[in-house]
Amino acid sequence: MLRFIGGILIITATTGAGILYGMELQEYLEKLLYIRHIIYMIKGELEYSQAPLSEAFGRISVRVREPYRRWLSAMEKQVENREEDAFLKIWMRSVDKYLKELHLKSEHSIQLKELGTYLGQPDGASESRTLQLYLGRLELEIEKVREGMAAKKRIGNCLGVMGGIFLVVLLI
């Protein structure tokens, strides 16, 4: 009877691990979608209100959740108070410091940092084109994650169950 209960517990635990893997994939997709939402907000602030970057970051920071709020608030303060640092350095440092806890994949983190290369320029049209280009690339990345997610979730669930069964067979 103890072996049976132990086997059920092992299968339940490994199945739960597979389900958690699927949930992590879903959370990662939600992070990318929220970043897209923030970039659309930045684009809107810059295009329609013609606000400077620091003011745009401040307005948006009030409307977003953590850790994005801290990131945008810090960006607002640093851009307003910059003395010698270029905007790119401020952007890269703040992405590294405040968005580190998101655990973005390196390619997504690099793309977000590259966005800072073209922001902060006096030409509003080039900023708008840059934001649109980044949003297009982000849409493609989101679509890739979505396409792979369903298959990865199924594989994670199956591997969880099969791994549990395999462990039970080994231990019996």
Question: Which key terms come to mind for this protein?
Answer:
6 helices; elongated; 0% strand; mainly alpha; 172 residues
- The helix fraction, in percent, is over 70%
Rg calculated over all Cα atoms: 22 Å
- Cα end-to-end separation: 12 Å
Alpha-beta content class: mainly alpha
pLDDT < 50 runs, ≥5 residues: none
Strand tally is 0
Please, could you describe this protein's structure?
- This protein is mainly alpha-helical and 172 residues long.
- The chain has helices spanning 2-48, 53-61, 68-81, 87-98, 106-118, 124-171.
- The chain has six helices and no strands.
- The radius of gyration is 22 Å and the shape is elongated.
- The two termini are 12 Å apart.
Architecture blueprint of SSEs:
Layout: H1 2-48, H2 53-61, H3 68-81, H4 87-98, H5 106-118, H6 124-171
Helix pairs in contact: 1-2, 1-6, 2-3, 3-4, 4-5, 5-6
